[in-house]
Design brief:
Layout (H helix, E strand, L loop, with lengths): L12 H20 L3 E2 L5 E3 H9 L3 H6 L1 E4 L5 E4 L4 H10 L2 H4 L3 E10 L11 E10 L4 H17 L5 E6 L6 H13 L6 H9 L10 H6 L12 H16 L5 E2 L11 E8 L8 E7 L3 H4 L7 E7 H5 L12 E5 L5 H11 L5 E3 L6 H9 L5 E5 L1 H6 L1 E6 L5 E5 H5 L7
Parallel strand pairs: 1-5, 7-8, 12-13, 12-14
Antiparallel strand pairs: 2-4, 3-4, 5-6, 6-11, 7-9, 9-10, 10-11, 14-15, 15-16
Helix pairs in contact: 1-6, 6-10
């Protein structure tokens, strides 16, 4: 027997219904906010992620599904969504066209890491990206949209925010942070590596010892320049005006190197140790890093698998038909009627001739509203037997009336 690879799961039955329900409703909300769908390839050049996500990140350093294809190209399965969307944005020359563009995406991502609850090697994300809007108001709108999505599904959360500064205030802060780190003994191997590649990533270390050692590290918020400070204050003011509760987390730096200014995460205590359900922020230099014209950007992504257990599906509403044959002679007619009806509504059928009781039993499992059968008597009289499985009403209806979608009974 061949099994799915470790850390990769099939999406079937109830989980498939939940996934579709999640995507459908997040899509509706994103469309209402003026975002349009973008789809990018699963396979990209490895260089894309090394230049965007950053070689100091665990994703690039340890977790990418990277290989050489038959043409000798260095490629990898996408570990996150933003970089591919930015590449597509530049490839379409939208960076040169100017204006504001807003996109949403969803699909599988891949990271080779230790599988655990809420963390798989193939996982799915829903995310959004805005290009060309420098105002912090867009940051606030992105957060409000994400909040609306989580609220729709009834998912409990806390919002954490921080500012990562800009090219003016980040360099001097990094210097002061490195000075602090140089005087700190006992840091883990990852933190020592990050100290020379991207020191602010040290603040994101999950090692308990490192967390205690970094308790008194200099804070980014104390080193912001005036424009960054003003933006962060405006963000807080907008969130407060919309009654959005938040906590300032001075250690929140996100896991990817391309963020600047606004950073945020929605965390939940309902999903175990991996408690971040969604997050994002601003990345005003990423388009430029990937050889596009300088273009401000901001977005978020959420891990769908982490949310699946928290989503309560609404009770399914009975709809559609089940149509079955009670005799061999009725099979051809049943197939014709099934094909006709499927042009406007969901129709289930069974290719085998069965008894009335057997067909009813099969229809009960499908949550249909109407049960329909055709047997010898129905063929002779050009009628069909129709039963409303909600009200339990049962009627004999002329075949022409049924096929022409005339109201069945009144």
């Amino acid at each position: 027997m061949v099994n799915a690879l470790r850390g990769m799961k099939d999406t079937v039955d109830e989980s498939s219904l939940k996934y579709s329900y999640f995507i459908e409703n997040c899509t509706k909300i994103a469309l209402n906010y003026g975002f349009s769908l973008i789809e990018t390839p699963i396979l990209e050049e490895t260089a894309l992620f090394k230049r965007s996500v950053g070689e100091s990140s665990d994703i690039v350093g340890k977790e990418m599904y990277q290989f050489s294809d038959k043409g000798g190209n260095d490629v990898c399965m996408r570990p996150e969504g933003t970089a591919g969307v930015v590449r597509a944005f530049i490839s379409a020359k939208f960076d040169k066209a100017g204006g504001i563009r807003r996109y949403f995406y969803h699909g599988p991502m891949f990271r080779y890491e230790r599988p655990q609850k809420g963390r798989l090697r193939q996982f799915h994300q829903f995310g959004v990206e805005t290009f060309g809007e420098p105002s912090v108001k867009e940051d606030a709108i992105i957060i409000l949209m994400l909040k609306e999505m989580l609220d729709f599904f009834g998912i409990g959360y806390e919002l954490e925010i921080n500012s990562l500064g800009c090219v003016e205030c980040m360099p001097p802060y990094k210097e002061s942070l490195v000075e602090f780190l140089d005087k700190t003994d006992g840091l883990c191997e990852d933190c020592l590596r990050r100290k020379t590649t991207n020191p602010i990533r040290v603040l994101d270390c999950k090692n308990t010892t490192c967390k205690s050692l970094l308790h008194n590290a200099p804070m980014l918020l104390d080193n912001l320049c005036s424009p960054c400070k003003d933006d962060f204050n405006e963000l807080k003011s907008i969130l407060t005006s919309f009654d959005v509760n938040y906590e300032i987390n001075t250690k929140l730096v996100r896991g990817l190197d391309y963020y600047n200014k606004t950073a945020f995460e929605f965390v939940s205590d309902e999903i175990g140790a991996q408690n971040a359900v969604a997050g994002g922020g601003r990345y005003d230099r990423l388009v430029e890093f990937l050889d596009g014209r300088p273009t401000p950007g901001v977005g978020f992504a959420m891990g769908i698998e982490r949310l699946m257990d928290l989503i309560v599906m609404p009770q399914a509403k009975q709809s559609g038909y089940y149509i079955g044959a009670l005799c061999e002679e009725a099979l051809e007619l049943v197939m014709k009627v099934v094909i006709e009806k499927r042009k406007s509504i969901v129709v289930h059928t069974n290719y085998a001739v069965k008894s009335l009781k057997a067909h009813l039993k099969a229809s009960d499992k499908l949550a249909v509203k109407y049960f329909v059968c055709i047997g010898e008597d129905e063929l002779k009289n050009k009628t069909v037997l129709v039963k409303d499985l909600e009200t339990k009403e049962e009627h004999t209806v002329t075949l022409s009336k049924f096929r022409n979608n005339i109201e069945l009974w009144n």
